[in-house]
User: Which sequence fits this backbone?
């Protein structure tokens, strides 16, 4: 996936009945988490092997060349393509993996989907809270400490040392950003068949990172036109930073923008 994936996992020091965990219980919990992290890392590498468009022999690369059918690939390929179809419909076609040059390319959804899978594996360990950060796209569950929320900083696209806003997430949530400031122009406008080049970044906050990732890609490709449609999706919000650094947010956007003025779409 061409990025770094990191995790932050809360260690629970109390048992279900409220008493402090003893050394044995803590060690067992750590071993379960360590095992889950190892399995999550292995799964991320497997996802990269299956879905990479840069590896010539990956099932997705072979699918794009017409060498195999979807039925011949691992079943997760069909699962991801079905999620892509739903995201294409929800985004009014602004997220469209079938419009990419060279054949179907689910890259705009896969990274978030993979990180959400990794988070689910960690959650199975019994850890009360965790965060997975896949190159700046973040999925969380639980609380990092009692009474606290996950505070996710979103980088200002014009200054690496500035935080544009912080998103406070309690419980399950996700933040995904698409932009040109890290990787250059790589998002294609599916209606024009060419890079968009109009925005600095587009961010979507919601329940699921795979879906948020796809919507952020579509929002960026639409040059902000998708904001109104995102306003209608339950539990999802978005904002864009245009080429001049001005910001527009979807109606009902719930998070204060630090040091900037959000203009409702």
Assistant:
């Amino acid at each position: 996936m061409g990025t770094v994936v990191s995790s932050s996992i809360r260690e629970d020091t109390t048992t279900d009945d409220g008493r402090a965990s003893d050394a044995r219980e803590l060690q067992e919990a750590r071993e379960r988490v360590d095992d889950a992290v190892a399995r999550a890392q292995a799964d991320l590498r497997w996802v990269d092997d299956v879905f990479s468009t840069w590896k010539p022999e990956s099932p997705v690369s072979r699918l794009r060349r017409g060498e195999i059918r979807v039925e011949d690939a691992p079943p997760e390929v069909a699962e991801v393509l079905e999620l892509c179809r739903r995201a294409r419909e929800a985004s009014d076609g602004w997220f469209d993996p079938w419009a990419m040059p060279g054949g179907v390319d689910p890259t705009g959804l896969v990274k978030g989907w993979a990180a959400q899978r990794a988070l689910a594996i960690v959650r199975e360990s019994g850890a009360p809270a965790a965060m997975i950060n896949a190159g700046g796209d973040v999925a969380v569950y639980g609380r990092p400490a009692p009474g606290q929320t996950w505070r996710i900083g979103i980088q200002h696209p014009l200054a690496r040392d500035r935080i544009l806003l912080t998103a406070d997430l309690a419980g399950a949530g996700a933040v995904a950003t698409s932009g040109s400031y890290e990787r250059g122009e790589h998002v294609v406008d599916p209606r024009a068949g060419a890079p968009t080049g109009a925005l600095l970044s587009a961010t979507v906050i919601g329940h699921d990172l795979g879906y948020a990732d796809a919507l952020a890609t579509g929002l960026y490709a639409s040059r902000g036109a998708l904001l109104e449609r995102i306003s209608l999706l339950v539990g999802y919000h978005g904002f864009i930073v245009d080429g001049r650094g001005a910001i527009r947010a979807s109606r009902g956007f719930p998070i204060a923008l630090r040091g900037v003025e959000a203009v409702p779409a």
About this structure: The radius of gyration is 19 Å. Confidence is low (pLDDT under 50) at residues 257-265.
